[in-house]
């Protein structure tokens, strides 16, 4: 494993492509974590450099320093990814690592502090240093498509919270069914069957909903 690199103030500013004055300004705005002190010398590391590059990328995308500060604060107070995965336990979902600028690019103009906080509260997102980890590639991809189709990210997250409630109830129902007639050890093996039932019922529910809308539209014609 490579040794952790450290930078003095001027070295960090040069690597980040900014002036020392700008670096100190970011420190004053609390956009950067405090450096390690050794007497009068301030030592920064690669996480500070990554944060500076993230700030530059977000500024290029039109974010204000106030907005970036709020995003940084939300991330700094978000759950560590180890805690997030620990809460979720074993999962079939594939986590996705993102930088803040990659997240901003997916949800152009909608990666606001409010939406980020909602995603953190839902447990969709965790943090690992200056990286963001989304708990599920499938959920991330679907959310991205819905937003690009014109649905506000805030509405997608609100719907996600409601879906979570129903999904928890369905998981409880299936777990009770198995435990009443089999054993806890059978749950992992029978889990795909529960998913198939839910997917089939949801598909049929959409069919009924679409037919109802078509009949309603035909009646108005």
Can you characterise this structure?
By secondary structure, this protein is mainly alpha-helical. Helix content is about 65%, strand content about 10%. It contains 10 helices and 6 strands.
Query: Structural class, from helix and strand content?
Result: mainly alpha
Largest sheet: 3 strands, antiparallel
Could you report the average pLDDT, rounded to the nearest whole number?
A: 84
Question: How far is it from the N-terminal to the C-terminal residue, by CA?
Answer: 70 Å
Could you give a quick summary of the protein structure above?
With about 220 residues, the chain is mainly alpha-helical. It has helices at about 10-15, 20-30, 45-60, 65-75, 80-90, 100-105, 115-120, 135-150, 155-180, 185-220, and strands spanning about 5, 35-40, 40-45, 95-100, 125-130, 130-135.
Secondary-structure blueprint of this entry?
Blueprint: E1 6-7, H1 9-16, H2 20-28, E2 36-38, E3 41-45, H3 46-60, H4 65-76, H5 81-88, E4 96-98, H6 100-106, H7 113-122, E5 125-128, E6 131-134, H8 137-148, H9 153-181, H10 187-220
Antiparallel strand pairs: 1-3, 2-3, 4-6, 5-6
Helix pairs in contact: 4-7, 7-9, 9-10
């Amino acid at each position: 494993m490579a040794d952790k690199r450290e930078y003095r103030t001027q070295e960090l500013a040069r690597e980040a492509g900014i002036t020392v004055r700008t670096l100190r300004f970011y420190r004053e705005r609390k956009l950067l974590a405090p450096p390690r002190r050794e007497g009068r010398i301030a030592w920064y590391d690669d996480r500070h450099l990554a944060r500076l590059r993230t700030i530059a990328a977000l500024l290029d995308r039109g974010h204000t320093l106030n907005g970036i500060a709020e995003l940084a604060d939300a991330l700094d107070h978000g759950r560590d990814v180890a805690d997030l995965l620990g809460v979720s336990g074993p999962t079939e979902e594939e986590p996705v690592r993102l930088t803040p600028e990659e997240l901003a690019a997916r949800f152009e103009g909608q990666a606001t502090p409010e939406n980020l906080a909602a995603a953190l509260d839902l447990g969709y997102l965790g943090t690992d240093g200056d990286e963001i980890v989304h708990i599920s590639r499938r959920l991330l991809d679907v959310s991205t498509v819905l937003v690009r189709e014109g649905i506000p990210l805030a509405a997608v997250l609100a719907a996600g919270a409601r879906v979570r409630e129903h999904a928890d109830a369905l998981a409880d129902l299936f777990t009770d069914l198995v435990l009443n007639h089999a054993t806890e050890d059978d749950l992992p093996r029978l889990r795909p069957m529960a998913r198939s039932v839910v997917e089939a019922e949801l598909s049929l529910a959409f069919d009924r909903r679409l037919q109802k809308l078509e009949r309603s539209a035909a009646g108005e014609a």
